[in-house]
Amino acid sequence: MSDPNRPPPPSTDNKNLLLSPTSSRSVTETVNGSHKFVIQGYSLAKGMGIGKHIASDNFTVGGYQWAIYFYPDGKNPEDTSTYVSVFIALASEGTDVRALFELTLMDQSGKGKHKVHSHFDRSLESGPYTLKYRGSMWGYKRFYRRAMLESSDYLKDDCLKINCTVGVVVSAIDCSRLPSIQVPDSDIGVHFGTLLENMDGSDISFNVSGVIFHAHKLVLAARSPVFCSDFFDGSEGINQEIIVTNMEPKVFQAMLHFIYRDTLVEDELVASSSSSSPSEFDSLTAKLLAAADQYDLGRLRRMCESCLCKEISVNSVAKTLALADRYHAAELKAVCLRFAAENLAAVMRSDGFEYLKENCPSLQSEILKTVAGCEEDCSSGGGKSRSVWAQLSDGGDTNGRRVRQRT
């Protein structure tokens, strides 16, 4: 006799569903990245003291920041500066970060006899190294005997090169997934650029020093509030040809290229920045910045600021600052003020600083205010940056290249 409380047996359909297999796979692998650390002026770094290090810039691997620490006098007091020490440090927040490491002292003779300390080839023996928290390190207190290092091919022209590879261990569950369809990158800029090149449907033209450019009111108005106001503010009709008197044809063409394609004319910008131009104001990028300001093209302004920022040097920073101030390039202006404050002595000896004296005295005052801010940051931050006033006492850097004072 059947039990009335017993659940009914599964149907045939349910059996089939239960028998359908599922699967998943755990995948543990390393996300690898490398950083080359060049230590120029090794002989000057010696004697800084046991336990004191020179740090590389932070670099990112596997979602964490890392830094290389080089101890020219060693990290271990017991070794009395017999060895140099090298460590890799976790420079960002993290807990129990597991990773593999490799430190390579580069042979600079061309023979390829590099000194390699690798954790990768020992991973089966001991597994990945676990860094518990920010500041945890892996490396070697006795990386290389200092006397041997100084007579080796690893040291050339008072320079050492250390290559670091970090492999951050990550685990993920790989489940069966439906096929994916790749969506191509946006090509709207290509289509609008073709519209500009073919002049199809153009309804406005610009006469720039005798060169005629055809364009489309709706496109220009959508990109520039100034053009929008000119074309559609309700005033009397706009002439079909507008004469532009304050811009060169190549600058206007580059501006139209941006408006339609949302990119810069890279080749012309590179040629302009690499030419021996008599003034920072004469480069195509600088003139394009002026055009961006005139027509309120915010993204173009920022792109020009980014290009000009890469060319800042002791000799150019003052005039670049004046340029940024004139055309309301706030980001570029802030970078220039900071750079000038941190390299004050050298900048004061440049021709550009004389230009500020004669043409933009208010900017000199802003530089001094920034100097005061740098001094305050230096004192509150434990002396990380070198005092700008100390630069004035020892003459600063006068070689005219991009510099930043550090200790």
UniProtKB/TrEMBL annotation:
Residues of the signal peptide: none
Pro residues biased stretches: 1-11
Phosphoprotein listed as a keyword: no
Domain of life: Eukaryota
SMART domains, per database record: BTB, MATH
Boundaries of every BTB domain copy: 202-268
MATH domain sequence ranges: 32-166
Keywords: Ubl conjugation pathway
Ranges annotated as biased composition (Polar residues): 12-27
Annotated segments matching region Disordered: 1-27, 379-407
Cited function: May act as a substrate-specific adapter of an E3 ubiquitin-protein ligase complex (CUL3-RBX1-BTB) which mediates the ubiquitination and subsequent proteasomal degradation of target proteins.
Family stated for the protein in its record: Belongs to the Tdpoz family.
Protein's recorded name: BTB/POZ and MATH domain-containing protein 4
Lineage, top ranks: Eukaryota, Viridiplantae, Streptophyta, Embryophyta, Tracheophyta
